[in-house]
Amino acid sequence: MATVLITGAAARLGRAIAEELHRDHQVIVHYRHSSQAAEALVETLNQRRPDSATAVQSELASADDCQRLAEAALECFGEVSVLVNNASAFYPTPIGDASEQQWGELMGSNLKAPFFLSQALTPALADANGCIVNLADIHADKPMPSHTIYSAAKAGLVMMTKSLARELAPRVRVNAVAPGAILWPEQASEGYNKEQILERIPMQRSGDPSDIARTVRFLACDAPYITGQIIAVDGGRSLNM
């Protein structure tokens, strides 16, 4: 059975992706600080199918962290055929108040870690004729007010997706999913007025985490001739921004 490593999989979109791919994958749940949520998810998945899920902790702050996570993931089930780069920091950084520490955290979680983890797992993914699915953002193309660093990091992730797709073909496919209004931020921030956003979405509603999870499944399992693509799952919001 194929094995998937999902970063930031203890909650929110990562959890939905883990539950969806667990239908026919062994699942490695990566977490940073959410140990209780990660272990609870693993317990739930193992109740559905014994010995099919495990959790691994990593800060993902450095290339060495990424290398260690890759090695730990390979020790879990002996192989990794799907990597889902989902872990992400998100908060506003208005010009005049942004710090170098914020730059490092936002660029690190959204761009640096996905690159170095992809690099560390490339040999295993190539052996498995596997794939990488990155979680991008529609704001990689349309900037969000006061979120310059985050938007720039996601834009870099989009280009990384396309570049790796070219470099790793034909053995490894690399694609990305760009969510729109799916889960609202846990803390209110400029650029996220819920009512105004919903008014401008052609589908007139927010999406569901399952919309993202099913798209990740499609790219991982049912798209053998698709690579280097960014699929917006946004109810048409990017048409009206």
UniProtKB/TrEMBL annotation:
<protein>
    <submittedName>
        <fullName>Pteridine reductase</fullName>
    </submittedName>
</protein>
<dbReference type="Pfam" id="PF13561">
    <property type="entry name" value="adh_short_C2"/>
</dbReference>
<dbReference type="InterPro" id="IPR002347">
    <property type="entry name" value="SDR_fam"/>
</dbReference>
<dbReference type="GO" id="GO:0016491">
    <property type="term" value="F:oxidoreductase activity"/>
</dbReference>
<dbReference type="InterPro" id="IPR020904">
    <property type="entry name" value="Sc_DH/Rdtase_CS"/>
</dbReference>
<comment type="similarity">
    <text>Belongs to the short-chain dehydrogenases/reductases (SDR) family.</text>
</comment>
<dbReference type="InterPro" id="IPR036291">
    <property type="entry name" value="NAD(P)-bd_dom_sf"/>
</dbReference>
<keyword id="KW-0560">Oxidoreductase</keyword>
